[in-house]
Design a protein that fits this description.
This protein is an alpha+beta fold and about 80 residues long. The protein contains 3 helices and 3 strands, in the order αββαβα.
Length: about 80
C-alpha cells in the first residue's frame, strides 16, 4: 500500500502544471507559445496574422486561426480565413 501511495504522489508531482487557455471568440487569430517545463500558452487576442506575427517574432511561438472565432454574421468559415 505504501508503494502505491509513493508512486501516486511521484506521478502527480511529475505532471506539468496546466495553463489557462484563452480562446476569445471575438478575435480571429491566436498566438500559441511554448515556455519552460513544457508550458504551452494560447492567447487569442489578435485581429490579424500580421499583428500576431509581430508579437511572435523571436519567440518560440506560432500564429493560428482561432477555432472558436464567431466571425461576422452570414459569412462562411472559408471567407473568414481570407481576411488576415
Amino acid at each position: 500500500m505504501l508503494h502505491l501511495l509513493i508512486l501516486t504522489g511521484a506521478t502527480m508531482l511529475a505532471i506539468a502544471p496546466a495553463a489557462a487557455q484563452r480562446y476569445d471568440p471575438r478575435y480571429p487569430v491566436c498566438l500559441q507559445s511554448w515556455h519552460a517545463r513544457g508550458l504551452t500558452v494560447i492567447d487569442c487576442s489578435y485581429v490579424s496574422i500580421a499583428q500576431c506575427r509581430a508579437t511572435a517574432s523571436g519567440l518560440a511561438a506560432m500564429c493560428q486561426e482561432n477555432p472558436y472565432w464567431q466571425g461576422s454574421p452570414g459569412r462562411s468559415s472559408r471567407q473568414q480565413g481570407r481576411d488576415y
